[in-house]
């Protein structure tokens, strides 16, 4: 039962343009969402997160948007660079106070940024 | 920032032997460790959650007698794959957290190949 879904296994974008990666979730208890970047045979690298009390969080070229009513979030990368080419995972958790719950991951989207 | 050191990065073992994977939090106390497994082009699947000094909580379908998890201190957790078989070949990743303020920190992963 996939509670976090990334329906696009791949995305190809030209350098300089915007990359938009999408993620949907089913569990309304999720209140913390994260995006990770991952290369083969390496651990995930944290990119950006958003709490359910917000609908947007921005960090440099990365912006995450959260639409709670649609149970949808997206990661925008602008401008895209060839070094952004990697697999991007969306993850979510339901936290209890100051304790972090387990993460649920999507299947990932392979982003390729071409020159 | 927070660092989790995971060793070994890759290991090849013979069928029937046991393999131990270590995860150490280098600059923070990890109250909770998560162990994940990733098959090629698949999502990260949670195997178990361990809290320091307590028995690990295993996800459905994960054999606790096969995948032994020890979290004896706030900086070290180990996963031992006992009597390994070729189907145990996978990429194993640990993640540590000490609470909401600190987020999740991932190790670099261990590629296990059982021959």
Q: Explain this structure to me?
A:
The complex is a heterodimer of chains A (115) and B (115). Chain A is mostly beta strands and 115 residues long. Chain A is built from no helices and 11 strands. In chain A, a hairpin with a 6-residue loop joins strand 4 and strand 5. Chain B has no helices and 11 strands. In chain B, the strands form 2 sheets. In chain B, strands 2, 4, 5, 6, 9, 10 and 11 form a 7-stranded mixed beta sheet that branches. A 4-stranded antiparallel beta sheet of chain B has the order 1-3-8-7, with no helix packed on it. At the A-B interface, strand 4, strand 5 and strand 10 of A face strand 5, strand 9 and strand 10 of B.
Topology:
The complex is a heterodimer of chains A (115) and B (115).
Chain A: E1 4-5, E2 10-14, E3 19-25, E4 32-38, E5 45-51, E6 56-59, E7 62-67, E8 72-77, E9 86-93, E10 104-105, E11 109-114
Parallel strand pairs in A: 2-11
Antiparallel strand pairs in A: 1-3, 3-8, 4-5, 4-9, 6-7, 7-8, 9-10, 9-11
Chain B: E1 4-7, E2 10-13, E3 19-25, E4 32-38, E5 44-51, E6 57-58, E7 67-73, E8 76-81, E9 90-97, E10 105-106, E11 110-114
């Amino acid at each position: 039962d996939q509670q976090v879904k990334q329906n696009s296994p791949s995305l190809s974008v030209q350098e300089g343009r915007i990359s938009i990666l999408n993620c949907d979730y089913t569990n309304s208890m999720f209140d913390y969402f994260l995006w990770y970047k991952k290369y083969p045979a390496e651990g995930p690298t944290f990119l950006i997160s958003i709490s359910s009390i917000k609908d947007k969080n921005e960090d440099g070229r990365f912006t995450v948007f959260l639409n709670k009513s649609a149970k949808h979030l997206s990661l925008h990368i602008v401008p895209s660079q060839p070094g952004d080419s990697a697999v991007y995972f969306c993850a979510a958790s339901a936290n209890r106070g100051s304790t972090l719950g387990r993460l649920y991951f999507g299947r990932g989207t392979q982003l390729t940024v071409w020159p | 920032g927070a660092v989790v050191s995971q060793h070994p990065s890759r290991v090849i073992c013979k069928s029937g032997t046991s393999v131990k994977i270590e995860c150490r939090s280098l600059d923070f106390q990890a109250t909770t460790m998560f162990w994940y497994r990733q098959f090629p082009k698949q999502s990260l699947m949670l195997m178990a959650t361990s809290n320091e000094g307590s028995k690990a909580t295993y996800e459905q379908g994960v054999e606790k007698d096969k995948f032994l998890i020890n979290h004896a201190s706030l900086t070290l957790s180990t996963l031992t794959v006992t009597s390994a078989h070729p189907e145990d070949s996978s990429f194993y990743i640990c993640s540590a957290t000490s609470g909401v303020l600190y987020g999740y920190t991932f190790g670099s992963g261990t590629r296990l190949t059982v021959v």
